[in-house]
Amino acid sequence: MPEWLLSALRTDHAGETGAVWIYRGILRASRDKKVIEFATRHLETEQEHLKLLESALDAANRSRLLPLWRLAGFIIGAVPALIGPSFVWATIEAVETFVVDHYEKQIEILTASEEQANILELLRKCSADEAEHCHEAQSLQNETQSPLTRLWCRTVSLGSLLAVKLSARV
Ligand SMILES: [Fe+2]
Ligand SMILES: [Fe+2]
Prior knowledge:
Helices cover 85% and strands 0% of the residues. The chain is an all-alpha fold and 170 residues long. It has a single domain, classed as Up-down Bundle (Ferritin). α1 (3-29) runs antiparallel to α4 (85-113) and α3 (66-83) packs antiparallel against α4. The longest helix has 29 residues, at 85-113. The two termini are 18 Å apart. The mean pLDDT is 96. Residues 16, 19, 46, 49, 126, 130 line the site of one fe (ii) ion. One fe (ii) ion binds next to α1, α2 and α5.
């Protein structure tokens, strides 16, 4: 496997670890029925994604900062869940928009190179699921986002970018 792909898969694995913990954070903090149903269903998909990434990337090549990605995910899930459902939907929309873009960049390179067909299929599946998560979170928002929500979402997106940069190396 080329070095860039190994590094990309490390970021994907770190991201799916974070995703699992986002939903764990939500489930720990929320008492809202709709949020709990949403998070339970999404958690199942994220656990499936994490298993797929684990099967594609041996333990030796995974990020050494996994405890940090778990903690960050938990906080990104629990904080909005404490505030309320609309904050949760906005956060998930921001996270998934970032993730789809992240996956699509890798998919584009792999599609062009016509190599690593199994990995390409795996990434396509994950990206399609994330797009669905994103659309669902989008459709649940019926009001315009408050300035505070927008600031939080921008912080989350920036944090995700930083996490990608870090987990690509460590
Ligand atoms: Fe995922
Ligand atoms: Fe997702």
